Amino acid sequence: MKPVVARVEAVLMADHGAKSFETRRLAEAELDFGGIRGDRHFGMTAKADVRQPEYPGGTEIFNRRQLTIVSAEECAAIAEALGIPQVKPEWLGANLLLSGLPDLTALPLGSRMIFESGAGLNGQGENFPCRGPGELVQANYPDHPKVASRFVKAAYRKRGIVCFVERSGVVRPGDAVRIWVNDGTLQ
């Protein structure tokens, strides 16, 4: 199988405290087994919440949401659907912004992303849109009514994916990333 190649446009982290998922841009990030140290989603484990209804709330489970990845093309499509100039990855809580993969959110569970440094991520599926990012987008466009309430529908199947770190390494803007799409033959 031949990989799809995309490009890292931005590396970001959420280190504003537990109440904010908004990210800021970095010159580079060391991906560790657990994500990006200092990021609000860093850790090998996490507490089960509404996303894992099969476990009682607060149960310690493996952290499949160490990183969030969005594509420039899908951010542009969300902005177009909302009738606004842009949707920044910072407002979506993204850790990586990629270009060259317009259907990033459709990547099957288990797809792998290998960066120039050898760092590897394992895709864990769609990051379903919620109202929080919509409210942050709305705050940046106060003259555009009802952006927050329309965000979930506009971002459906365009909100990116969540991943866990499979191999540590450095990721930088400008790096190429090979994406091995899980077609059922990957192990």
Question: Describe it for me?
Answer:
This protein is α+β, with helices and mostly antiparallel strands and 187 residues long. Helix content is 16%, strand content 32%. The protein has 3 helices and 13 strands; from the N terminus they run βββββββαβββααβββ. The chain has helices spanning 72-82, 131-140, 147-155; strands spanning 4-13, 24-26, 29-32, 35-36, 45-47, 60-62, 67-71, 96-99, 112-115, 120-126, 161-167, 169-171, 176-180. The strands form 3 sheets. It has a 7-stranded mixed beta barrel. Strands 4-3-12 form a 3-stranded antiparallel beta sheet, with no helix packed on it. It has a two-stranded antiparallel sheet with strand order 5-6. α1 crosses α3 and α2 packs across α3. The longest helix is centred in the middle third of the chain and has 11 residues, at 72-82. The chain is globular and about 45 Å long. The chain starts with a strand and ends in a 7-residue tail after the last strand.
